[in-house]
Design a protein that fits this description.
By secondary structure, the protein is α/β, with parallel strands linked by helices. The chain is built from six helices and nine strands. Strand 2, helix 2 and strand 3 form a beta-alpha-beta unit. Bound molecules: NADP nicotinamide-adenine-dinucleotide phosphate.
Length: 223
């Protein structure tokens, strides 16, 4: 499995304001993200991003020429909290969608999701978070998903980074300072306690836009 994390951040590392506003990057950068979506088999987000942003996670801003098919949407949602009236559920008959849950997810909700054309994978024990390592294995073996684009938020980014499950991270730094300890950062979780334990990255590409944004690409050299 090849995993790319993509995120737009402010100069101070926030991915949204304390009230959850997350439109940080420019339309130009959003087009780049949609182009990136064309190159992957799956687009993955955590359930809080669905609850807060109600995203569609489709390719709209550009026309994919090389895409084999529209990427599968993958929602990491331990207890199947995804609302039935979310855009993701309402469009699941047209866009392939997988929800990764734990054994604790209520069966009746899973049945309702299946009835709405969502596919379910179970990975992790009741009372715990989704086991991402095992979920990635299932996504590859069951659904042939070999390349995933992770689009946040901060908790999911942290879990994927902490478990060393990513190959590349692309960050758009927007010329903004958001501030606030309650504004979500690129990686949440508990963090590493020592610099020597931190994930080491290698700069592979940098692009500066006329609008003051910088897009930086790093490879994970420890995977
Ligand atoms: N600027 C950007 O590029 C960007 C991109 C995306 C999102 N955002 C913003 O980020 C915010 C949401 O970020 P967030 O950090 O609050 O939440 P998140 O990462 O979107 O979702 C976290 C939730 O996923 C579930 N989860 C299940 N298994 C997990 C695991 N193994 N590791 C981590 N989480 C797991 C947990 O809820 P359960 O236990 O209930 O399953 C957890 O609370 C939103 O405000 C959104 O606007 C910004």
């Amino acid at each position: 499995m090849f995993v790319v994390i993509n995120s737009a951040i402010s100069v101070d590392g926030k991915i949204c304001t304390k009230t959850g506003e997350s439109k940080i990057s420019s339309d130009l950068d959003l087009k780049r993200v949609h182009k990136l979506r064309c190159s992957v088999d799956g687009i993955l987000v955590g359930i809080s991003t669905v609850l807060k942003d109600d995203p569609l996670l489709s390719i709209r801003l550009i026309k994919c020429t090389k895409a084999k098919k529209t990427p599968t949407r993958i929602i990491i949602d331990s207890n199947a909290r995804i609302p039935l009236d979310s855009k993701i559920v309402k469009t699941a008959k047209d866009i392939d969608t997988v929800i990764a849950v734990t054994k604790g997810a209520p069966r009746d909700k899973l049945d309702m999701l299946r009835a709405n054309n969502l596919r379910i994978i179970v990975s992790g024990e009741q009372g715990k978070k989704v086991n991402l390592d095992k979920a990635f294995g299932q996504l590859e073996t069951k659904f042939g998903i070999k390349k995933i684009l992770v689009e946040g938020g901060g908790e999911i980014n942290w879990s994927i980074i902490k478990n060393n499950l990513f190959d590349e991270i692309i960050v758009t730094i927007s010329p903004l300072i958001i501030g606030g300890r309650d504004a979500t950062t690129l990686t949440e979780g508990i963090g590493f306690d020592k610099i020597k334990k931190c994930v080491k990255l290698e700069l592979s590409k940098i692009h500066k836009s006329n609008n003051g944004e910088i897009v930086v690409h790093y490879n994970n050299i420890g995977k």
